[in-house]
Amino acid sequence: MRLFHTSDWHLGQNLHGQERDFEHASFLTWLLARLAERAPDVLLIAGDIFDTVNPPVKAQERLYDFIVSAHEQSPQLTIVMIAGNHDSGSRIELPAPLMRRLRTHALGRVLWLDDGVLDVDRLLLPLTNAKGKVLGWCLALPFLRPAEVTGPTLGDNYLRGIGQVHEMLIAAANHKRKKGQALIAISHAHMAGGSISEDSERSLIIGNAEALPASLFGETITYVALGHLHKPQKVNGEERIRYSGSPIPLSFSEIGYQHQILEIDCEGGKLASVKPLLIPRAVNLQRIGPAPLAELLLQLKDLPDIDLLADIDRQPWLEVRVKLDEPQPDLRNQIEATLENKAVRLVRIAAQYAGKGGRDDDEDRELIELDQLSPQELFSRAWLDSYGTQVDEQTLQDFATLLQDVQLEGEQP
Questions:
Q1: Beta 2-6 vs 14-15: how paired, if at all?
Q2: Which tens digit of pLDDT belongs to each residue from 264-311?
Q3: Which end of the chain is more exposed for a tag (fewer CB within 10 A), N or C?
Protein backbone atom coordinates (compact mmCIF):
# COMPACT_ATOMS: atom_id res chain seq x y z
CA MET A 1 0.00 0.00 0.00
CA ARG A 2 1.25 3.46 -0.91
CA LEU A 3 0.10 6.67 0.77
CA PHE A 4 0.76 10.38 0.32
CA HIS A 5 1.00 12.34 3.58
CA THR A 6 0.21 16.06 3.34
CA SER A 7 -1.02 18.65 5.83
CA ASP A 8 -1.55 22.32 6.60
CA TRP A 9 -2.68 23.50 3.18
CA HIS A 10 -4.14 26.68 4.72
CA LEU A 11 -6.21 27.43 1.62
CA GLY A 12 -7.35 31.05 1.65
CA GLN A 13 -4.33 32.29 3.61
CA ASN A 14 -3.17 35.89 3.19
CA LEU A 15 0.42 37.03 3.61
CA HIS A 16 0.19 40.43 5.30
CA GLY A 17 -2.99 41.15 3.37
CA GLN A 18 -1.94 39.64 0.03
CA GLU A 19 -3.90 36.62 -1.21
CA ARG A 20 -1.97 33.51 -2.18
CA ASP A 21 -4.43 31.68 -4.38
CA PHE A 22 -1.88 31.40 -7.22
CA GLU A 23 0.55 29.55 -4.95
CA HIS A 24 -2.10 27.18 -3.67
CA ALA A 25 -3.35 26.51 -7.20
CA SER A 26 0.23 25.76 -8.31
CA PHE A 27 0.67 23.28 -5.46
CA LEU A 28 -2.61 21.49 -6.21
CA THR A 29 -1.70 21.21 -9.90
CA TRP A 30 1.68 19.76 -8.91
CA LEU A 31 0.00 17.34 -6.47
CA LEU A 32 -2.42 16.09 -9.13
CA ALA A 33 0.54 15.34 -11.39
CA ARG A 34 2.31 13.41 -8.60
CA LEU A 35 -0.86 11.41 -7.90
CA ALA A 36 -0.94 10.38 -11.55
CA GLU A 37 2.78 9.62 -11.62
CA ARG A 38 3.20 7.74 -8.33
CA ALA A 39 -0.31 6.18 -8.11
CA PRO A 40 -0.77 6.05 -4.32
CA ASP A 41 -3.73 4.19 -2.87
CA VAL A 42 -4.43 6.88 -0.26
CA LEU A 43 -4.02 10.65 0.07
CA LEU A 44 -3.95 11.96 3.64
CA ILE A 45 -4.61 15.63 4.50
CA ALA A 46 -3.77 16.03 8.18
CA GLY A 47 -5.74 19.16 9.09
CA ASP A 48 -5.67 22.93 8.65
CA ILE A 49 -7.10 22.48 5.20
CA PHE A 50 -8.33 26.07 5.35
CA ASP A 51 -6.67 29.02 7.04
CA THR A 52 -9.79 30.19 8.89
CA VAL A 53 -13.02 28.68 10.17
CA ASN A 54 -14.91 30.79 7.61
CA PRO A 55 -12.74 30.45 4.49
CA PRO A 56 -13.36 32.51 1.34
CA VAL A 57 -15.46 30.92 -1.39
CA LYS A 58 -12.45 30.69 -3.71
CA ALA A 59 -10.57 28.59 -1.15
CA GLN A 60 -13.50 26.18 -0.81
CA GLU A 61 -13.77 25.92 -4.59
CA ARG A 62 -10.07 25.06 -4.76
CA LEU A 63 -10.52 22.15 -2.36
CA TYR A 64 -13.60 20.65 -3.98
CA ASP A 65 -12.34 21.14 -7.54
CA PHE A 66 -9.17 19.30 -6.52
CA ILE A 67 -11.12 16.40 -5.00
CA VAL A 68 -13.25 16.01 -8.13
CA SER A 69 -10.20 16.20 -10.40
CA ALA A 70 -8.29 13.67 -8.30
CA HIS A 71 -11.23 11.24 -8.41
CA GLU A 72 -11.70 11.63 -12.16
CA GLN A 73 -8.00 11.05 -12.71
CA SER A 74 -7.61 8.19 -10.20
CA PRO A 75 -11.04 6.65 -9.46
CA GLN A 76 -9.62 4.13 -6.95
CA LEU A 77 -7.80 6.77 -4.86
CA THR A 78 -9.02 7.11 -1.26
CA ILE A 79 -8.74 10.58 0.29
CA VAL A 80 -8.87 11.08 4.07
CA MET A 81 -8.92 14.58 5.47
CA ILE A 82 -9.38 15.80 9.02
CA ALA A 83 -10.05 19.21 10.53
CA GLY A 84 -7.23 21.13 12.15
CA ASN A 85 -7.34 23.91 14.73
CA HIS A 86 -7.75 26.50 11.95
CA ASP A 87 -10.72 24.63 10.51
CA SER A 88 -14.36 24.42 11.46
CA GLY A 89 -15.06 20.76 12.15
CA SER A 90 -18.71 21.09 11.19
CA ARG A 91 -17.83 22.87 7.93
CA ILE A 92 -15.33 20.15 6.98
CA GLU A 93 -17.99 17.47 7.57
CA LEU A 94 -20.90 19.29 5.92
CA PRO A 95 -20.36 17.89 2.38
CA ALA A 96 -19.22 14.46 3.69
CA PRO A 97 -22.16 12.47 2.21
CA LEU A 98 -21.38 13.84 -1.25
CA MET A 99 -17.62 13.39 -0.89
CA ARG A 100 -17.98 9.75 0.07
CA ARG A 101 -19.17 9.16 -3.51
CA LEU A 102 -15.74 10.43 -4.54
CA ARG A 103 -13.99 8.03 -2.11
CA THR A 104 -13.22 10.97 0.16
CA HIS A 105 -13.68 10.84 3.94
CA ALA A 106 -14.01 14.14 5.83
CA LEU A 107 -13.75 13.99 9.64
CA GLY A 108 -14.08 17.18 11.66
CA ARG A 109 -15.01 16.09 15.18
CA VAL A 110 -15.51 13.15 17.48
CA LEU A 111 -18.90 11.99 18.74
CA TRP A 112 -19.87 10.12 21.86
CA LEU A 113 -22.60 7.50 22.11
CA ASP A 114 -25.36 7.77 24.72
CA ASP A 115 -23.50 5.57 27.19
CA GLY A 116 -20.42 7.83 27.12
CA VAL A 117 -18.47 5.53 24.79
CA LEU A 118 -16.49 7.04 21.92
CA ASP A 119 -18.09 6.42 18.52
CA VAL A 120 -15.02 4.73 17.06
CA ASP A 121 -16.71 3.29 13.99
CA ARG A 122 -16.95 6.68 12.24
CA LEU A 123 -13.23 7.34 12.95
CA LEU A 124 -11.95 3.95 11.69
CA LEU A 125 -11.80 3.91 7.91
CA PRO A 126 -10.91 0.90 5.72
CA LEU A 127 -8.09 1.51 3.25
CA THR A 128 -8.47 -0.60 0.11
CA ASN A 129 -6.54 -1.21 -3.07
CA ALA A 130 -7.93 -0.99 -6.61
CA LYS A 131 -9.50 -4.45 -6.23
CA GLY A 132 -11.31 -3.49 -3.04
CA LYS A 133 -9.12 -5.54 -0.70
CA VAL A 134 -8.68 -3.96 2.75
CA LEU A 135 -4.96 -3.33 3.13
CA GLY A 136 -5.21 -1.37 6.35
CA TRP A 137 -7.20 0.93 8.59
CA CYS A 138 -6.99 4.68 9.00
CA LEU A 139 -7.44 6.12 12.49
CA ALA A 140 -8.82 9.62 11.86
CA LEU A 141 -8.14 11.98 14.78
CA PRO A 142 -9.22 15.55 13.98
CA PHE A 143 -8.21 18.47 16.19
CA LEU A 144 -10.08 18.02 19.44
CA ARG A 145 -11.61 21.08 21.11
CA PRO A 146 -12.24 21.16 24.88
CA ALA A 147 -16.01 20.74 24.54
CA GLU A 148 -15.47 17.43 22.73
CA VAL A 149 -13.15 15.78 25.25
CA THR A 150 -14.09 17.22 28.66
CA GLY A 151 -17.23 17.04 30.77
CA PRO A 152 -18.89 15.22 33.67
CA THR A 153 -17.86 11.74 32.50
CA LEU A 154 -14.50 12.62 30.93
CA GLY A 155 -13.13 15.07 33.51
CA ASP A 156 -11.81 18.60 33.13
CA ASN A 157 -8.24 17.87 31.99
CA TYR A 158 -8.17 18.89 28.33
CA LEU A 159 -4.91 17.23 27.35
CA ARG A 160 -5.85 14.06 29.23
CA GLY A 161 -9.12 14.04 27.30
CA ILE A 162 -7.20 14.21 24.01
CA GLY A 163 -5.02 11.35 25.17
CA GLN A 164 -8.05 9.24 26.12
CA VAL A 165 -9.58 9.65 22.66
CA HIS A 166 -6.32 8.54 21.06
CA GLU A 167 -6.08 5.54 23.41
CA MET A 168 -9.68 4.45 22.78
CA LEU A 169 -9.37 4.65 19.01
CA ILE A 170 -6.03 2.86 18.94
CA ALA A 171 -7.46 0.06 21.11
CA ALA A 172 -10.44 -0.31 18.76
CA ALA A 173 -8.14 -0.38 15.72
CA ASN A 174 -5.93 -3.06 17.25
CA HIS A 175 -9.05 -5.14 17.89
CA LYS A 176 -10.37 -4.70 14.32
CA ARG A 177 -7.21 -5.20 12.29
CA LYS A 178 -6.41 -8.56 10.71
CA LYS A 179 -3.00 -10.06 10.11
CA GLY A 180 -1.06 -8.19 7.46
CA GLN A 181 -3.15 -5.02 7.66
CA ALA A 182 -1.47 -1.69 8.38
CA LEU A 183 -2.71 0.83 10.94
CA ILE A 184 -2.31 4.41 9.73
CA ALA A 185 -3.08 7.21 12.21
CA ILE A 186 -3.78 10.73 10.99
CA SER A 187 -3.85 13.37 13.71
CA HIS A 188 -3.69 17.15 14.08
CA ALA A 189 -1.81 17.73 17.31
CA HIS A 190 1.31 19.15 18.90
CA MET A 191 3.57 16.27 19.85
CA ALA A 192 6.24 16.73 22.51
CA GLY A 193 9.61 17.32 20.88
CA GLY A 194 8.18 18.94 17.75
CA SER A 195 9.87 22.06 16.37
CA ILE A 196 7.50 24.96 15.62
CA SER A 197 7.78 27.74 13.03
CA GLU A 198 7.58 31.31 14.26
CA ASP A 199 4.79 33.67 13.22
CA SER A 200 2.46 31.19 11.50
CA GLU A 201 1.38 28.46 13.92
CA ARG A 202 -1.50 29.05 16.28
CA SER A 203 -0.72 27.35 19.60
CA LEU A 204 -2.70 24.23 20.49
CA ILE A 205 -1.41 24.24 24.05
CA ILE A 206 -3.16 26.05 26.90
CA GLY A 207 -0.74 27.92 29.14
CA ASN A 208 2.49 25.94 29.45
CA ALA A 209 0.90 22.49 29.52
CA GLU A 210 2.85 19.66 27.95
CA ALA A 211 2.24 18.49 24.39
CA LEU A 212 1.14 14.94 23.65
CA PRO A 213 3.82 12.24 24.08
CA ALA A 214 4.85 10.24 21.03
CA SER A 215 4.60 7.11 23.20
CA LEU A 216 0.83 7.41 22.78
CA PHE A 217 1.29 5.74 19.37
CA GLY A 218 2.50 2.24 20.23
CA GLU A 219 4.46 -0.04 17.95
CA THR A 220 1.26 -1.55 16.52
CA ILE A 221 0.70 1.71 14.60
CA THR A 222 2.47 1.39 11.28
CA TYR A 223 2.66 5.12 10.52
CA VAL A 224 1.47 8.36 12.12
CA ALA A 225 0.66 11.22 9.70
CA LEU A 226 0.70 14.43 11.71
CA GLY A 227 -0.46 17.95 10.97
CA HIS A 228 -0.05 21.32 12.73
CA LEU A 229 3.70 21.96 12.69
CA HIS A 230 4.71 23.52 9.39
CA LYS A 231 8.30 22.26 9.29
CA PRO A 232 8.78 18.69 7.98
CA GLN A 233 10.22 16.57 10.78
CA LYS A 234 10.32 13.28 12.58
CA VAL A 235 9.03 13.25 16.17
CA ASN A 236 11.83 12.25 18.53
CA GLY A 237 13.70 10.83 15.56
CA GLU A 238 11.08 8.16 14.88
CA GLU A 239 10.81 7.23 11.21
CA ARG A 240 7.13 6.29 11.53
CA ILE A 241 5.88 9.42 13.39
CA ARG A 242 6.18 12.50 11.18
CA TYR A 243 4.98 15.94 10.27
CA SER A 244 4.91 16.42 6.50
CA GLY A 245 4.83 20.20 6.94
CA SER A 246 2.96 22.81 4.93
CA PRO A 247 3.16 22.78 1.11
CA ILE A 248 4.12 26.48 0.88
CA PRO A 249 5.95 28.78 3.32
CA LEU A 250 3.20 30.43 5.35
CA SER A 251 5.46 33.13 6.81
CA PHE A 252 8.93 34.53 6.24
CA SER A 253 10.18 32.33 9.09
CA GLU A 254 9.56 29.28 6.88
CA ILE A 255 11.69 30.18 3.86
CA GLY A 256 14.87 28.43 5.00
CA TYR A 257 13.85 24.84 4.22
CA GLN A 258 12.38 22.88 1.31
CA HIS A 259 8.68 22.11 1.55
CA GLN A 260 7.49 18.62 0.72
CA ILE A 261 4.91 15.88 0.92
CA LEU A 262 5.77 12.35 2.04
CA GLU A 263 5.31 9.13 0.09
CA ILE A 264 4.74 6.19 2.44
CA ASP A 265 5.08 2.57 1.33
CA CYS A 266 3.84 -0.27 3.53
CA GLU A 267 4.37 -3.99 3.06
CA GLY A 268 1.57 -5.70 4.91
CA GLY A 269 1.51 -4.21 8.40
CA LYS A 270 5.13 -3.02 8.21
CA LEU A 271 6.49 0.37 7.20
CA ALA A 272 8.76 -0.19 4.18
CA SER A 273 9.89 3.33 3.28
CA VAL A 274 9.25 7.06 3.69
CA LYS A 275 10.27 9.25 0.76
CA PRO A 276 10.01 13.06 0.57
CA LEU A 277 8.67 14.55 -2.66
CA LEU A 278 9.97 18.11 -2.86
CA ILE A 279 7.45 20.78 -3.86
CA PRO A 280 8.65 23.45 -6.31
CA ARG A 281 8.14 26.94 -4.91
CA ALA A 282 5.82 28.88 -7.20
CA VAL A 283 6.65 32.22 -5.54
CA ASN A 284 9.76 32.97 -3.52
CA LEU A 285 9.67 34.79 -0.20
CA GLN A 286 12.62 37.16 0.04
CA ARG A 287 14.05 38.97 3.07
CA ILE A 288 16.45 41.93 2.90
CA GLY A 289 18.14 43.24 6.03
CA PRO A 290 18.30 43.99 8.85
CA ALA A 291 20.55 46.87 7.78
CA PRO A 292 20.80 50.65 8.32
CA LEU A 293 18.49 52.59 6.05
CA ALA A 294 21.16 53.96 3.69
CA GLU A 295 22.66 50.50 3.20
CA LEU A 296 19.24 48.94 2.81
CA LEU A 297 18.19 51.36 0.08
CA LEU A 298 21.34 50.46 -1.89
CA GLN A 299 20.45 46.78 -1.64
CA LEU A 300 16.91 47.48 -2.84
CA LYS A 301 18.26 49.52 -5.74
CA ASP A 302 20.28 46.50 -6.90
CA LEU A 303 17.19 44.27 -7.18
CA PRO A 304 16.28 43.20 -10.74
CA ASP A 305 13.93 45.41 -12.73
CA ILE A 306 10.50 44.25 -13.85
CA ASP A 307 10.48 42.03 -16.93
CA LEU A 308 7.35 42.97 -18.87
CA LEU A 309 7.22 39.46 -20.34
CA ALA A 310 7.42 37.73 -16.96
CA ASP A 311 4.42 36.49 -14.97
CA ILE A 312 3.61 39.04 -12.26
CA ASP A 313 2.07 36.27 -10.11
CA ARG A 314 5.56 34.78 -9.75
CA GLN A 315 7.22 37.95 -8.47
CA PRO A 316 8.73 37.33 -4.99
CA TRP A 317 7.05 38.56 -1.83
CA LEU A 318 9.46 40.93 -0.08
CA GLU A 319 10.03 41.64 3.60
CA VAL A 320 12.36 44.55 4.42
CA ARG A 321 14.09 44.84 7.79
CA VAL A 322 15.63 48.19 8.61
CA LYS A 323 17.74 49.36 11.57
CA LEU A 324 16.98 52.88 12.77
CA ASP A 325 18.42 55.18 15.43
CA GLU A 326 15.23 57.24 15.47
CA PRO A 327 11.79 57.17 13.81
CA GLN A 328 11.66 57.97 10.08
CA PRO A 329 8.21 59.39 9.24
CA ASP A 330 8.77 58.89 5.49
CA LEU A 331 10.31 55.41 5.83
CA ARG A 332 7.70 53.64 3.72
CA ASN A 333 7.81 56.34 1.03
CA GLN A 334 11.59 56.02 0.73
CA ILE A 335 11.43 52.24 0.45
CA GLU A 336 8.51 52.21 -2.00
CA ALA A 337 10.17 54.85 -4.19
CA THR A 338 13.35 52.77 -4.37
CA LEU A 339 11.34 49.67 -5.27
CA GLU A 340 9.50 51.35 -8.14
CA ASN A 341 9.80 49.17 -11.27
CA LYS A 342 11.52 46.41 -9.28
CA ALA A 343 10.41 42.81 -9.79
CA VAL A 344 9.26 42.23 -6.19
CA ARG A 345 6.07 42.75 -4.19
CA LEU A 346 6.62 44.50 -0.87
CA VAL A 347 4.44 43.03 1.87
CA ARG A 348 6.14 44.05 5.11
CA ILE A 349 8.55 46.59 6.60
CA ALA A 350 10.00 45.69 10.01
CA ALA A 351 11.76 48.54 11.85
CA GLN A 352 14.36 47.74 14.48
CA TYR A 353 15.39 50.53 16.85
CA ALA A 354 18.66 50.76 18.74
CA GLY A 355 18.62 51.21 22.52
CA LYS A 356 18.38 54.57 24.23
CA GLY A 357 22.08 55.22 23.75
CA GLY A 358 21.78 54.60 20.04
CA ARG A 359 23.86 51.42 20.34
CA ASP A 360 23.11 48.22 18.48
CA ASP A 361 23.31 45.95 21.52
CA ASP A 362 21.18 43.82 23.80
CA GLU A 363 18.82 46.73 24.36
CA ASP A 364 17.69 46.58 20.72
CA ARG A 365 13.92 46.35 20.39
CA GLU A 366 12.09 45.21 17.28
CA LEU A 367 8.66 46.62 16.53
CA ILE A 368 6.32 43.64 16.46
CA GLU A 369 3.16 43.74 14.38
CA LEU A 370 -0.06 42.41 15.88
CA ASP A 371 -0.28 39.52 13.46
CA GLN A 372 3.01 38.18 14.79
CA LEU A 373 1.56 37.65 18.27
CA SER A 374 -0.78 34.92 19.43
CA PRO A 375 -3.87 35.94 21.45
CA GLN A 376 -2.17 34.61 24.58
CA GLU A 377 0.90 36.78 23.96
CA LEU A 378 -1.23 39.86 23.37
CA PHE A 379 -3.16 39.18 26.57
CA SER A 380 0.08 38.73 28.56
CA ARG A 381 1.50 42.01 27.23
CA ALA A 382 -1.74 43.88 28.00
CA TRP A 383 -1.77 42.44 31.53
CA LEU A 384 1.84 43.52 32.12
CA ASP A 385 1.10 47.04 30.84
CA SER A 386 -1.99 47.35 33.04
CA TYR A 387 -0.77 45.79 36.29
CA GLY A 388 3.03 45.87 36.11
CA THR A 389 3.37 42.13 36.82
CA GLN A 390 3.47 38.96 34.76
CA VAL A 391 0.10 37.26 34.35
CA ASP A 392 -0.31 34.19 36.56
CA GLU A 393 -0.90 30.68 35.22
CA GLN A 394 -4.53 30.38 36.40
CA THR A 395 -5.49 33.63 34.64
CA LEU A 396 -3.83 32.37 31.45
CA GLN A 397 -5.81 29.16 31.74
CA ASP A 398 -9.07 31.12 32.17
CA PHE A 399 -8.22 33.30 29.17
CA ALA A 400 -7.47 30.22 27.04
CA THR A 401 -10.85 28.71 27.96
CA LEU A 402 -12.66 31.92 27.00
CA LEU A 403 -10.71 32.04 23.74
CA GLN A 404 -11.77 28.51 22.90
CA ASP A 405 -15.41 29.45 23.57
CA VAL A 406 -15.16 32.43 21.22
CA GLN A 407 -13.55 30.31 18.48
CA LEU A 408 -16.29 27.71 18.81
CA GLU A 409 -18.97 30.43 18.50
CA GLY A 410 -17.25 31.60 15.33
CA GLU A 411 -17.72 28.14 13.81
CA GLN A 412 -21.49 28.18 14.17
CA PRO A 413 -23.25 28.54 10.80
A1: unpaired
A2: 999 999 999 999 999 999 999 999 999 999 999 999 999 999 988 888
A3: C
